Amino acid sequence: MTRQSVHRWLRRYAARGLAGLVDASTVPGSCPHQMASVVEARVIKMRVAHPGWGPRTIGHWLAREGVDPVPGRSSIYRCLVRNGLITPEARRRRRADYKRWERARSMELWQMDVVGGVCLADGSEAKVVTGVDDHSRFCVSALVVARATARPTCEALALAMRRHGVPAQILTDNGKVFTGRFGPGTGEVLFDRICRENGIKHLLTAPRSPTTTGKVERFHRTLRQEFLAGRVFATIEVAQSELDGWVEHYNHQRPHQGIGMVAPFERFRLARAEPSTIELENAAPDTTVGLEVAHRRVAANGRISFASTSYLAGKWLAGETVEVTCEHGVLQLHHRGVLVATHARRHSPAKQTAAIRRGQKRALRRTVTPRPAPSAASVTRKVDSSGNVSFAGTNYRVGNTFRRRQVQVAIVESSVEISIGEELIRVHPIRHDRTREHGALANPGGRPHRTNAA
Questions:
Q1: Residue 100: how many other CB atoms lie within 10 Å
Q2: Cα-atom radius of gyration of the chain, to the nearest Å?
Q3: Which residues are registered as beta bridge partners of 426?
Q4: 46, 64, 298, 355: least surrounded by Cβ within 10 Å?
């Protein structure tokens, strides 16, 4: 034995006699970081009231209630296991095992589907045409219909586009209301025609692959658990009214684990607005009193360069323009009026003013004078991902600002004029074969694209 053990035995014998030499438990007498009983009771109460909440969601709401310190995720998990509210898993998946993909910004892709389970008082069951934005998880469509046929489904799509704008792509499964891929006919269905006429690329999942539309399927699970479970509605109108209230709460108040415990609207409101050439190019530089503002374009790696120093804005903002302000040693990045990043200043103060002046001079050089749109007959073409349009077998440059937008192409004398509405944006000399103009002008809507799988 060691000398320390002998002295420990002597102290115990002096204090309690032979009873002090009995083997005791090795459990510590106290644990400084043990969860307080009040917090443990609150965790149990939250779990009982909301069986669908996991450790991460419970920890989020504890923080919002002002609990300090907030227990860790594993501590809340062990608390729920101790009290029989969670069955311990044989093997918990690591976060690295999950492979997720999402679009870089809102309005790039919508996932749409149909879900049942809306029980009515007359014994029938209604359907819900749902749609979720891929990047923000914002619910863009939740329309209750008696039967999910082609016409009601397309009405739900049209209503969503009137409310939130036209997305670049829509992803659906191979249901007959969405595509004629496996139908008896060879033509396009109404849903495909609406997508084509609005310049939307319609993507389809592979057969028997529901995980491709996993975000809208996960939304269906939340819809069933939090809204439809055990409920019977008098009419479809009543169900729609109550569903609209739940969707409002889901979009603007309910935190979402997949996007960092924020409401979907916090991401969706950063969606790309419809660009206006006159307003963007002729706008004067921001001259906020007492605070100079610079504008920078985010690179593909999500960073900007300001005063010869690189700062991170976020990959999801690649290609967007952000406002840069620096005050009291803190650099802030804003996108469409929303604060997206904050950094401690790492650049030299002497270079800051010069960097802002250079940005303002470049903005003034880009100022253009708007010209009236051409009055000649025109055709509609969609700008591809490289910023070009194809007319009569020849590519003409439009610009990256107008990617995936529809433009009008017209032949005026010896030039090709490209416009959007009443705004003329580009003029090029004719480089195509003039004998092919008749075929190009005879197809004003453009060649219909073949529908491919996602």
A1: 7
A2: 30
A3: 418
A4: 64
Residue 62 pLDDT:
92
Matching residue, tokens 């923080």? 63
Which regions in the chain score pLDDT beneath 50? 90, 272-290, 364-375, 448-454
Instruction: Quote the distance between the C-alpha of residue 362 and its chain's center.
Output: 32
Alpha helices of 70-165 — where are they, by DSSP H?
73-82, 150-164
The domain locations on the chain are: 3-92, 109-268, 277-365, 378-441
Q: What is the pLDDT of residue 182?
A: 81
The pLDDT tens digits of the residues spanning 109-136 come to: 999 999 999 999 999 999 999 999 999 9
Pairing of strands 169-172, 109-120: parallel
Instruction: Give yes or no for a cis peptide into 255 (omega within 30° of 0).
Output: no
- Per the CB < 8 A criterion, the answer to whether 169 and 200 are in contact is yes
Instruction: State the pLDDT at residue 453.
Output: 44
Contacts of 396 (CB under 8 A, 6+ apart): 388, 389, 390, 409, 416, 418, 426, 428, 431
The β-bridge relationship of strands 321-327 and 388-391 is unpaired
For 109-268, which CATH class?
Answer: alpha beta
**Tokens coding 419:** 């416009």
pLDDT of residue 443: 64
β-partners of residue 139 are 132
Strand 169-172 versus strand 201-204 pairing type: parallel
Report the pLDDT value the prediction gives residue 294, as an integer from 0 to 100. Answer: 84
Give residue-wise pLDDT tens across range 182-237. Answer: 877 667 889 999 998 888 999 999 888 888 899 999 999 999 999 999 899 999 99
Nearest alpha-carbon partner for 135 in 167, 174, 96: 167
- Binning the chain into helix, strand and coil, the percentages to the nearest 5 are 35, 25, 40
Please count the residues of the chain: 454
- What is d(CA 377, CA 443) in angstroms, rounded to the nearest whole number? 12
Instruction: Provide the 8-state DSSP code for 262.
Output: B
